[in-house]
Amino acid sequence: MSAPAKTGGLVVENLTVAYPLATATVLGVDGVSFTVRPGERLGVVGESGSGKSTTALALLRLIRPPGRIAGGRVMLNGTDLRGLDEAGMRAARLRVVSYIPQGAMNSLNPVKTVAAQMRDAILDHGERVAPDAIARALEGVDLPAGTARLFPHQLSGGMKQRVCIAIGMLLRPQLIIADEPTSALDVVTQRQVMGTLGRLQTETGACLILIGHDMGLMVQFVDRLAVMYAGRLVELGGIEEVFAAPRHPYTRMLIDSVPTFENRGHFVGIPGTTPSLARLPPGCAFAPRCRFAMELCRQVVPPSREVAPGRSVACHLEDVPLAPPA
Ligand SMILES: Nc1ncnc2c1ncn2[C@@H]1O[C@H](COP(=O)(O)OP(=O)(O)OP(=O)(O)O)[C@@H](O)[C@H]1O
Ligand code: SF4
Ligand SMILES: [Mg+2]
Known about the structure:
Blueprint: E1 10-20, E2 25-36, E3 41-45, H1 52-59, E4 68-76, E5 79-80, H2 86-95, E6 97-100, H3 114-124, H4 133-140, H5 157-169, E7 175-179, H6 187-204, E8 207-211, H7 215-221, E9 224-229, E10 232-238, H8 239-244, H9 249-256, E11 305-308, E12 311-313
Parallel strand pairs: 3-8, 3-9, 6-7, 7-8
Antiparallel strand pairs: 1-2, 1-4, 4-5, 9-10, 10-12, 11-12
Helix pairs in contact: 5-6
The site of adenosine-5'-triphosphate (ATP) has 13 residues, from helix 1.
């Protein structure tokens, strides 16, 4: 028997996911490392295609072949998730790790009531359905008990998303991964649903990973932020420190793209496009879009280095913090 890990929470080391294409193998996730302590909330941001969902799916071992986890370690409260057999991993999903996927509310079964879907989720994991389990789960996400009798088409978007969160929390998981859980909702409903998710997480002390694009939501909700670019984790740190003094030019641009009162609520796009993983430039993948790019950047991939406790950046620049563009 292996010795129990001393570190509680989630520890991800060097996680790598490979997708074989016709001409080459691309890395959807390339050597990503981070930790999430029990009760902590980690936000993961990055443009479309940066590897956020692939990271989540790899933690759950749900990468579809021919894609595969090519390396790395995933420990959750001392359990090596990569070491579990298929049956063990199936049991761990929902019971230990709960995934609220992108577009979750559209994945509710249209021909089953909310109660039937919740009951199925419990039974699937070999658990007994306590008489008041469903009413309590709905109450936990601020839905009336009568919601149990309804079909998905009878629910608003916000209610559907609350049902998905209730299903995700049924077995009190140790890790919750929410992939853009509120992107289809209006801002007010978004904040309410996130409030509910946050409260449930605080009550259970679970680790939480929130994947999204909305930097404003991240500031309000998470403790730490991970920034991904082209499959790599380029910056990691406390949300306040990262916002006050981003160390990576890409993080700086993401922050500057947030609509503000000063720019009259306009979304400022990031110049250039995300690179194709099959044609990544040598060196830093962000170099073609970076106003600080140096010769070294075009030749050598910047390694991730710890610049302060709990703060790391993968950039050749030494100077900090980066000033906003004039
Ligand atoms: N089945 C697959 N085969 C090949 N490449 C894939 C596959 N699934 C994902 N990828 C690649 O992995 C990269 C990361 O995709 P991923 O879905 O993780 O991005 P994301 O950050 O979640 O984006 P979004 O914000 O759009 O949800 C993408 O560049 C994509 O092309
Ligand atoms: S390594 Fe160079 S190109 Fe990459 S983000 Fe830093 S300064 Fe820009
Ligand atoms: Mg995604």
